[in-house]
Design goal:
By secondary structure, this protein is α/β, with parallel strands linked by helices. It contains 15 helices and 11 strands. The protein folds into 2 domains: 159 residues, Aspartate Aminotransferase, domain 1; 246 residues, Type I PLP-dependent aspartate aminotransferase-like (Major domain) (Aspartate Aminotransferase, domain 2), CATH 3.40.640. It has a 7-stranded mixed β-sheet with strand order 1-7-6-5-4-2-3, sandwiched between helices.
């Protein structure tokens, strides 16, 4: 492919992309395919001779698109969103064109310094205090792993980095029973061991109980363990519960335990001054993460990771072979030393485009709109005798279930709601997901898609009720 052909095909793709933005809600949000169906359409061997762009693009449209779940559809209301927006996509196109590997200042000075400023813009926008400094990671899972590795090195005075874990010491990690599964995965990867993760009980709002946390820490200390870190969550994946950060932070300060705050999804709501109550006590935290790629219209991947002790972060990850040394090392930030991978994408560019395009007021308007839509649907559910809320709704994720008045058997209710969700998915008109709260099968609906409007929520609620009624008619 030469430059003229590239220009021609690029225009074709941009036309298709613009059409997709306009037409995405017309696609079945979940594809009607069976496992292995796409695989059967793909050749067993790679082509020996090059193929035309036209052939590749046709296969993309006829083989790949029919097998895609359309996360960008406003009818996608499952999990948490992985949002994009026009400016974010345009920035990704430029990033791909530049093809820069932004591991150090020297490899792309503009990329490093733009990232530094974007982290400052975000820090101020969400109200983090000034000691925090940030870096872009790939995901909240990666950011939390970085935090646990920092905690590991802090409590061992960097001994693990040098000689490995002491054989005669046990280090413990704490999180709520509702914390995301990535925490357990990170605990394993960091070498603490799954058995040394303490899952703290939650209250009736599914938030961590500070008293239970302190009791667990004290018990471990009495048994000769060394509490290394606590992970508090602002917006748990199951129910968007808000852990009481202030009380947890005070406990961590009292026992000198590293505190990481996982606000992967809900952190975007901190753009709203009226939601800053969620972050009360953040001054006690050693690290904090939220993902603009979830609810801030910046397509995957873009995780904003902040720490209070920049030197601890860098010392945890820094390594300096001769081939990476540059004359500017002492005067610049080399973000390769701020996380796990050496190679880094130019992710700050899409943040720059998104924030400048929307403006903080535009971002806040959309976030408030989503929360407002959630409140309206919450009221609808509360007023319907055959449905019930399963958890508080502090943001824009609603946990509910179908509960006809004449059914009290929990097993039957679980089976009924599982059938309801399966039929919703099979319709292709709406995508929801589930969790279990206190062992009860719970359906989740999340209002966070970039282009979500009231009619989409109204249509979703009509479909839910229609399928639910058909199950008991």
């Amino acid at each position: 492919m030469d430059n003229n052909k590239f220009r021609e095909h690029a225009h074709q793709l941009v036309d298709w992309m613009a059409d997709y933005f306009e037409e995405v809600e017309d696609y079945p949000v979940k594809p009607d395919v069976q496992p292995g169906e796409i695989l059967k359409q793909l050749p067993d061997e790679a082509p020996v001779q090059g193929e035309s762009f036209e052939a590749m693009f046709q296969d993309f449209k006829h083989t790949i698109i029919p097998g895609m779940t359309h996360w960008e559809s406003p009818n996608f209301m499952g999990y948490f969103p992985a949002n994009k927006s026009y400016p974010s996509v345009l920035a990704e196109m430029l990033t791909a064109t530049l093809g820069a590997q932004c591991m150090s200042w020297l490899t792309s000075p503009a990329a490093t310094e733009l990232e530094e400023q974007m982290m400052e813009w975000l820090r101020k926008a969400i109200g983090l205090p000034e000691p925090f400094t940030g870096v872009i990671q790939s995901t909240a899972s990666t950011s939390t792993l970085c935090a646990l590795l920092m905690a590991r090195e802090q409590i061992t005075d960097f001994e693990v980095n040098e000689t490995g874990f002491p054989k005669d010491e046990t280090f413990t990690i704490y999180c709520s029973s509702e914390t995301h599964s990535s925490i357990e995965k990170d605990v394993k990867i960091a070498g603490f061991g799954r058995q040394n993760l303490r899952k703290i009980p939650v209250n009736n709002k599914y938030a961590m109980k500070p008293k239970a946390l302190e009791e667990a820490i004290r018990e471990d200390l009495e048994n000769g363990c060394k509490p290394a870190a606590v992970v508090a969550t602002i917006g748990t994946t199951g129910s968007t519960a808000i852990d009481p950060l202030k009380e947890i932070g005070q406990i961590c300060s009292r026992y000198d335990v590293f505190l990481h705050v996982d606000a992967a999804y809900a952190g975007t709501a901190l753009l709203l001054p009226e939601m800053r109550w969620m972050n009360e006590g953040i001054e006690h935290a050693d690290s904090f993460v939220f993902n603009p790629h979830k609810w801030m219209f910046t397509n995957f991947d873009c995780s904003a990771f902040y720490v209070q002790d920049e030197a601890l972060l860098v010392r945890t990850f820094e390594i300096m072979p001769e081939y990476l040394k540059t004359p500017e090392d002492q005067r610049v930030k080399n973000y390769r030393d701020w996380g796990i991978p050496l190679g880094r994408r130019f992710r700050a560019l899409k943040l720059w485009f998104v924030i400048r395009s929307f403006g903080l007021d535009g971002l806040r308007k959309k976030i408030r709109h989503h929360i407002s839509l959630s409140k309206s649907l919450t009221e609808e559910i509360e007023q319907n005798d055959d449905f019930e809320l399963m958890a508080p709704v502090p943001l824009n994720a609603i946990c509910f279930r179908f509960h006809p008045l004449y059914i009290d058997d929990e097993k039957k209710l679980n089976e009924l709601n599982e059938k309801l969700l399966n039929q919703i998915q099979e319709s292709g008109k709406l995508f929801l997901t589930h969790t279990k709260l206190d062992g009860k099968y719970t359906i989740r609906i999340v209002m966070g898609n970039t282009n979500l409007e009231k009619q989409h929520v109204d249509n979703a609620w009509k479909l839910i009720r229609k399928i639910a009624e058909s199950l008991i008619s």
